[in-house]
Amino acid sequence: MTPSTHSEPITELGAAALAAEIASGRLTSVEATRACIERCKQQSRLNALVQPCFDAALRDAQRADAAVAAGEPLGLLHGVPVTVKDCFAMRGTEVTLGIPGFSNGPAETDSPLVTRLRGAGAVLLGKTNVPQGMLLHECNNPVFGRTLHPTDPSRSPGGSTGGEASIVASGGSPLGLGSDLGGSIRQPVHACGVAGFKPTPRRLSLVGSSRAIPGMRAMRISPGPIARHVDDLELAMRVLVDHTDSPRQPDEEAAPWRDPSTIDVSELRIAYWTDDSFLPTAPAVRRAVEEAAAALRDAGADVRKITPPDDREMMRVYVGLLSADGMRSLARLVRGGEVDPQIRRQLRIGGLARWARVMLGGALRLLGRRLLPDLLHWSGARSADDYWRLCCDADRYREAFWPLAAEQFDGRPVDAILLPPFGVTAMPHGRALDVLPASSHCFYANLVDAPAGVVPWTTVRDDEQEFPRAPWGLAQWAARAATSGSAGLPVGVQVMAPAWRDDTALAVMKRLEQLRSTPD
Fold first, then answer.
1. Mind listing the pLDDT tens digit for each residue in 60-89?
2. Contact 125, 52 (CB under 8 A)
3. How much is the pTM?
4. What DSSP character marks residue 96?
5. Crossing angle, helix 440-447 and helix 311-322, to 10 degrees?
6. Under 8 Å between Cβ of 284 and 458
7. CATH architecture of 10-257
8. Tens digits of per-residue pLDDT, 410-443?
9. The CATH number of 269-309+395-515 is which of 3.40.50.720, 3.30.930.10, 3.90.1300.10, 3.40.980.10?
10. How many angstroms separate the Cα of 100 from the Cα of each of 103, 142, 158, 316?
11. pLDDT reported for residue 356
12. What is the reported pLDDT for 62?
């Protein structure tokens, strides 16, 4: 095979473009893999790729090139370098969750999703970093340390799929596999300026992946891809839903995968909101949603602003379900080992007795605080009876969410919703727990089993570095700190669609990508 004479830098090509170049013979997999490895080494300060498998990747790339030369059938990702989040089993690497002592040593087999990536011809570069326990929008842990934002080392790339977002944004990998329970794909891609997609829960298997609260069934983690382009997300989803190399797993629904290209976005009814009742949205984030809504309206879609459906009920149920064990599952995993300071705070708050929550919440209300007392009241350990009742509340909210949105759309069904991915941009290190209420925009899709993704839209302007004034509180203070000095940081827009309409969400994301204005 002749060496490539490709003019565009290899590390700027997306996964689909790389696959096409390799299949055509204009580029070799070895060239692509070496370019990504070199970029990963150049960006080692980011500490994003924490378990590199470079030698194995180059051997796989050589085999991929031999298959092209022999005229063998090629998969959709043939020869394309790919990275994988720490939580997925991948042979020869460890699953750590950032917790000392959690790993049982290098995995001997791949998880089903990793098997599907390999079956499509992907070349696996290694595993990326996560926060300890994967329950924080920030990447730092005692096993591998802190991951940095790709353009601002004083800030976090987000989490829990922050390592993936950072390495994809920095050009070290064109495609990554992540997972999402409360914005763990969507928040970091917003922070880093790339694209990510959380499919409908139960579309992709969790077999062969680890998590800090494995017994929770009321909400499901959704594996999904991270890339620089929406076409790459859709390509990755076609690979991940293909059961040729790994059969359908017991936790995967037999739901058809619809082609997003068949959706005419100009015919859709699209709702949007810029704020809910928990924490004001940073000016650049609000502007991004307003601009995206206007662009879709100008492109022919029926776009209308609505109020988030019963947002306080959403937060009450989501926080209640996530914390119903009093953080005991995570506490067991980290017991006896080094614990990240923010995780230690989470465990202390999660372990507060109900009477202590009542007393502390009452005192905070007397001081004029509103949000934190509510969060204290809604969260914490519950009896089995209380937990089951909360599960029923979750079912009722899921059933009511889209009809409530339709009521604000003249009673007509809503096809998609635009909303902020997160209340602020990339945060300074150590602030993710403080600014938890900014996560509220992530939680809707997780609670209502909706597919949702984020596409880059703009960057923060010089005049958008002051957070809106709000009643004093820790979250407001942390949000102000995040907004200060944020000029130039990426801002994304989130798209959500009803369950199993992943095609609609991706189609709207693709249209926004096409309509996106040049960042200021």
1. 999 999 999 999 999 999 999 999 999 999
2. yes
3. 0.97
4. -
5. 80
6. yes
7. Alpha-Beta Complex (3.90)
8. 999 999 999 999 999 999 999 999 999 999 999 9
9. 3.90.1300.10
10. 8, 7, 21, 32
11. 93
12. 98
CA atoms within 13 Å, Cβ hemisphere of 186:
34
Give catalytic residue positions: 85, 160, 184
* Separation of alpha carbons 234 and 189, rounded Å: 16
Nearest-angstrom CA–CA distance, 399 and 395: 6
Rounded mean pLDDT of 478-499?
Answer: 97
Q: Are 49 and 4 in contact (CB under 8 A)?
A: no
Angle, CA 89 vertex, CA 328 and CA 202 arms, to 5°: 70
Are 326 and 381 a contacting pair, CB within 8 Å?
yes
Contacts of 480 (CB under 8 A, 6+ apart): 466, 467
What are the strands, taking DSSP E only, across 170-244? 175-180, 195-198, 222-227
pLDDT in tens, 168-205: 999 999 999 999 999 999 999 999 999 999 999 999 99
Q: Which residues pair with 180 in a beta bridge?
A: 222
Domain with CATH 3.90.1300.10 in the chain: 10-257, 269-309+395-515
Banded model confidence at residue 1, pLDDT cuts 50, 70, 90: very low
Kindly provide the b/e burial profile for residues 375-411, where b requires at least 16 CB atoms within 10 angstroms of the residue's own CB.
Answer: bbbbbbbbeeeebeebbebbeebeeebbebbbeebee
Measured CA to CA, the distance from residue 122 to residue 239 in angstroms comes to 10
Spatial distance between the Cα atoms of 288 and 193, rounded to a whole number of angstroms: 13
Q: In 6-134, at which residue ranges do the beta strands (DSSP E only) sit? A: 49-52, 81-85, 123-128
Q: In which band, very low, low, confident or very high, does the pLDDT at 147 lie, cut at 50, 70 and 90?
A: very high
Res. 6 pLDDT band, cuts 50 70 90: low
Q: How far is CA 457 from the centre of its chain?
A: 16
Q: Are 159 and 139 in contact (CB under 8 A)?
A: yes
Q: Which of 261, 263, 267, 272 has its CA nearest to residue 300?
A: 267
Distance of CA 121 to the CA centre of its chain: 24
